């Protein structure tokens, strides 16, 4: 297949492009970053021109405003990229009959269900990042009925990006102890596992909404402790609350307290082989340059 990737220079996009190529697909790697086919998804004309020129069979739309606190400070900026940009990509896909896969987030949920979320649960984002991504979901569904896949993921980390495991490893080397939030629970997801599953989904598409996250769930505190231990460091990890974190680090964002995701659509299709988060984290640490 010919696949156009947006946000190809980002954490997920980098692994995804490599994995697509390894599986024999032709890739058009676009981004606003240097070194890629230039494409700013907020520019309608550019979005349509890129898709008309490439004529891809599928678009994997990874480009996003991913700065969660920044979205609280500048909601319009977040909506411009996550809602308008996704609308453009879906409309361009509609014109060229391409399949569009939109990567979304567990932040579309409020975290108050008390059990893992399925694809059939109602959304209720708490902040502007989640709301702008949810607006993107709706625009994709409306603009491209029958030709879209929405893949919600969570707590993403990969070799090619700024992420939680890197931050914890750095802090554990610098500080006498590392304070980490213990009252937020979710599904850590390695970009390599996500990327493999996104490609499975475009190769055998059944349009609709999917949860694609690492198996099992934990708190940020559990995740940090596991990272520090697996890296052979002795630095203590100490639990703090989300409220303490917000005060200490001046974070304006209310995050879902409990957003594990059940991969019910993948389960029903017999496609759920996402590895447990502990296994994926060990694989990630083995890939991190020493
Ligand atoms: N990271 C997570 O924990 C997480 C969790 C759930 C879902 N997701 C979703 O997963 C997807 C990939 O996330 P990621 O962590 O790989 O993100 P990322 O590393 O921030 O990559 C996003 C890429 O999109 C680019 N971009 C930003 N604005 C753009 C625009 N207007 N036009 C074109 N490209 C633009 C970014 O460039 P610059 O960086 O130079 O702006 C970057 O290269 C996103 O849809 C995100 O919402 C992420």
UniProtKB/TrEMBL annotation:
> Per the record, what is one GO cellular component?
cytosol
Does the keyword field hold Kinase?
Answer: no
Q: Which CDD domains match?
A: dTDP_HR_like_SDR_e (cd05254)
Say yes or no: keyword Protease present. Answer: no
| Family indicated by similarity | Belongs to the dTDP-4-dehydrorhamnose reductase family.
User: What is the protein's given name?
Assistant: dTDP-4-dehydrorhamnose reductase
User: Which keywords has UniProt assigned to this entry?
Assistant: NADP, Oxidoreductase
Record's function text:
Catalyzes the reduction of dTDP-6-deoxy-L-lyxo-4-hexulose to yield dTDP-L-rhamnose.
**Which GO BP annotation is one of this protein's?**
dTDP-rhamnose biosynthetic process
Q: Which GO-annotated molecular functions does the record name?
A: dTDP-4-dehydrorhamnose reductase activity
Organism expressing this protein natively: uncultured Armatimonadetes bacterium
* NCBIfam families membership: rmlD
Pathway stated in the Swiss-Prot or TrEMBL entry: Carbohydrate biosynthesis; dTDP-L-rhamnose biosynthesis
**Where does the RmlD-like substrate binding domain start and stop, copy by copy?**
1-286
State which Enzyme Commission number(s) the record gives.
1.1.1.133
**Family annotation (Gene3D superfamilies):** NAD(P)-binding Rossmann-like Domain, UDP-galactose 4-epimerase, domain 1
């Amino acid at each position: 297949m010919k696949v156009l990737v947006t946000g190809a220079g980002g954490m997920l996009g980098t692994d995804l492009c490599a994995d697509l190529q390894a599986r024999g697909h032709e890739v058009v790697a676009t981004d606003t970053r240097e070194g890629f086919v230039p494409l700013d998804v907020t520019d309608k004309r550019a979005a349509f021109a890129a898709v008309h020129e490439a004529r891809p069979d599928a678009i994997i739309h990874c480009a996003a405003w991913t700065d969660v606190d920044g979205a609280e400070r500048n909601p319009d900026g977040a909506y411009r990229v996550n809602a308008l940009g996704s609308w453009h990509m879906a409309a361009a896909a509609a014109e060229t009959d391409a399949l569009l896969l939109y990567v979304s987030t567990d932040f579309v949920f409020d975290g108050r269900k008390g059990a893992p979320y399925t694809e059939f649960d109602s959304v209720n984002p708490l902040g502007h990042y989640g709301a702008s991504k949810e607006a993107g979901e709706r625009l994709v569904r409306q603009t491209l009925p029958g030709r879209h896949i929405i893949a919600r993921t969570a707590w993403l980390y990969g070799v090619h990006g700024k992420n939680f495991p890197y931050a914890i490893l750095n802090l554990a080397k610098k500080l006498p102890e590392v304070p980490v939030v213990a009252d937020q629970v979710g599904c850590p997801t390695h970009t390599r596992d996500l990327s493999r599953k996104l490609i499975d989904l475009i190769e055998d598409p059944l349009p609709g909404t999917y949860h694609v996250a690492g198996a099992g769930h934990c708190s940020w505190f559990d995740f940090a402790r596991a990272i520090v231990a697996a890296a052979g460091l002795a630095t203590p990890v100490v639990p703090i609350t989300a409220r303490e974190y917000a005060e200490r680090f001046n974070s304006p964002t209310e995050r879902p307290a409990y957003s594990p995701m059940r991969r019910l659509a993948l389960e029903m299709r017999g496609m759920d082989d996402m590895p447990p988060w502990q296994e994926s984290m060990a694989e990630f640490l083995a890939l991190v340059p020493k």
